[in-house]
Design brief:
five-stranded parallel β-sheet, 230 residues, alpha/beta
Length: 230
């Protein structure tokens, strides 16, 4: 099976650090495609042109200082993992970098051809999981709001339809009552589907996980549709 080639954007103005980083990644064969940029402005333009899989970001760039670079890269490409390259093994500094949106960090000169590729791959996988979790949460939140907003008018239609059926059924005749009954059944079915939206938006259901169904109800619904009864 062919390995996916990961596109790495290396943003580092120090040529020695850039060379060492390339050498550490070269040990993993053709797994990485590296583009080296020397300032933040060029990096942001590159992200505007299209996505990359991971950004290796040095601080102290000619046009950016401190954590501003992390914030600006995240603003331009929020779904892209950032691995910060720092010159000092300062845990407090590293924690602040993570709080600003970096996925991980490495100390320049303290990585090799085994450690750096592993850090890059882990950062990519963690970001993918994070993006998936956020997407799932957004989908569930939307389904919950939509279900709530749609159920209210559907319940009103059923309520008014039942009032019309019971209080004015004789006035609308046999054909009118039949059409009204079909409308009420269709509205009830739609309300049931709408009420299930939050459950169906759950990742397990969206992924096709098995769920219990009432086979009798399903067959009955198919037969009613076949016979023209909604």
């Amino acid at each position: 099976m062919n390995q996916q080639i990961l596109r790495i954007m290396l943003v580092e103005d120090n040529p020695d650090d850039a060379w060492a980083t390339r050498e550490a990644l070269a040990g993993d064969g053709d797994r990485f495609e590296i583009q080296h940029l020397r300032n933040l402005g060029d990096a942001l333009e590159r992200l505007e042109a299209g996505p990359v899989d991971v950004v290796l970001l040095g601080l102290g760039l000619p046009d950016s200082q401190g954590f501003d670079a992390i914030v600006r890269v995240r603003a331009r490409s929020p779904g892209t993992p950032i691995v910060l390259m720092t010159g000092a093994d300062d845990k407090a500094f590293a924690i602040r970098a993570l709080q600003h949106g970096a996925q991980d960090y490495v100390v320049k000169g303290a990585y090799d051809e085994k450690r750096l590729p592993r850090i890059v791959l882990y950062a990519v996988e963690r970001k993918r999981a994070e993006n998936l979790a956020r997407s799932s949460a957004d989908r569930e939140r939307f389904a919950l709001v939509a279900s709530r907003d749609l159920q209210e008018p559907l319940h009103k239609i059923m309520a008014y339809g039942n009032i019309l059926m019971h209080q004015h059924g004789e006035d609308i005749g046999l054909q009118g009552r039949d059409l009204l009954s079909r409308m009420l059944r269709a509205t009830e079915r739609m309300a049931k589907l709408v009420s299930e939206m939050p459950e169906l938006s759950h990742p397990a259901q969206a992924a096709g996980a098995p769920r219990l169904v009432d086979l009798n109800e399903t067959v009955s619904r198919v037969l009613r549709a076949r016979n023209g009864i909604i």
